[in-house]
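This week, think about what follows.
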Amino acid sequence: MRSDEAIVNQPVPTGVALVHAEYHNFQIADPQGPVADDLDASRTGLVSADGGAIEVTTGIHTGDVQVRVEPHYQRPDPAEGWEEIAEISCHSPSGELLVTSFMDDPADLPSLASQGPGSYRLRIHARGRDRAIDQTTVDEVVESYLVQSWPASHEGALLVKATDTYGVQVRARQADHTIVIDHEDSLDTQTGRERDILRRAERGEYS
């Protein structure tokens, strides 16, 4: 058996965990560096990039969502039974591509970088984003996500499937190729000011 065949035939580590969403998103990031250039959420309504991290847009404002990760060695088929599906490219400097909350430690999930440092394609599947739009308190987990990954050269962001109402709302925002435009980010709103404070604290600007 050739070495490349052996890699493809290795078991793929998968995992499921609850991830805390804040400000309508959870993130996919590399602890050692940026993984993508900024990309506005209105391009796909589901996945974007901001501050070097991939952001997955949730319907709820704050709360837990269920996330399953499936790292692959080759491009898989999209999974069935999901309401929204989108793809985005990224690069992992360290080989650790991790699902994480905005201010928390990474979730207890396998790395999405199945072959270590390099370029990857992420396919995000979402379900349940219309059930509690903008809510900050939910009694049960209402949103589920599946993240598939595989090694691939860079391509533009792609909307694969679009059926939920929240995705329509996000895609209706004015798009920009380099600057993330989000009603949550405006410093004219309380949420925007809070998010700006959190980002500055993360960068040590208040220390």
Summary: Confidence is low (pLDDT under 50) at residues 1-6, 176-186. The two ends are 55 Å apart (CA to CA). The beta strands are 15-21, 25-29, 47-50, 53-57, 63-71, 84-92, 98-100, 118-127, 144-151, 158-162. DSSP finds three helices and ten strands in the chain.
